[in-house]
Amino acid sequence: MPKFNIIITLILFIIFLFLGKIAFDALADNINQNIPLKNENIILNTDNNDQIIENQIATNTGENLIINSNNIKKIYLATEDFDKDGLSDKEENEIYHTDPNIADTDNDGFIDGDEIKNNYSPLNLEKIKLDKNDYDKDGLSDKMEILFKTDLTNSDTDGDGYKDGEEIKKGFNPNNKEKIKLDKKIEINLDKQRLSYFLGGINMGTYPISSGIGNSTLKGKYKIINKYPKAWSSYGLWMPYWLGLGTGKFGIHELPIWPNGYREGENHLGKKVSHGCIRLGIGPAKLIYDWAEVGTPVIIN
Ligand SMILES: [Ca+2]
Ligand SMILES: [Ca+2]
Ligand SMILES: [Ca+2]
Ligand SMILES: [Ca+2]
Questions:
Q1: What's the CA-to-centroid distance between 149 and ligand 3, angstroms?
Q2: CATH number at residue 281
Q3: Which residues contact 71 (CB under 8 A, 6 or more apart)?
Q4: Is the C or the N end of the chain the one with fewer CB within 10 Å?
């Protein structure tokens, strides 16, 4: 009966194929159900090796998924702006921590990109500027977090136990667990009569000064060579918060005070009136004095 056996074998084989197709369809449905319904770019890594199957589905939510059997990781592209708010998906995810799928994250009527362009916080319903908003309450404004490339939604970006704001205040790198100091520098612009101070290349503040009359403040690269809370000038007045420059014959200090208590030059900030020193106003002088160290470079342009 060999013919009969062949027929039985063929029938069994057809049944086997049919069951196999049912199983395969069920598996395919299952995979499809596990894919979020939003339209996304999805990369399926089906078998843990290097084979990656790219599966473009309809449109894009700004989220690109890599799926393999062990983990799911979203990739945001610098070339995509899914919600058309003027910020790329990557910028929204990595820098501003806004929603790449919603144009107006804080729902205040202004789209994220416009808020950033005009220095407003896209994460605060209040009309508040980035330099006044501290989203994660770590003592560093959102504006400075963006400049220092720290995480404005994480109070301790590098996870070393010190808040981002504390690290910047003490001059440490908030993006590195190691205790690494950031470079300090002071720059003085004689034409603009302004002093700026920099930490790690980031401008921390700019203040009006009063430098030497005519060209009596010499341009050049200097270092702070000494500092005294109150120095005495040969012109017979006190120079509070003294930071000596060059050979120490001139320096940066607060508006001078005569022995009778009269404060010199309060109306002169922004004008060249001194004998060569760089005068700072009340407030900024102490701030710069406390911040700068002996050895800090001072560049006068
Ligand atoms: Ca966007
Ligand atoms: Ca908004
Ligand atoms: Ca932070
Ligand atoms: Ca830290």
A1: 9
A2: 2.40.440.10
A3: none
A4: N
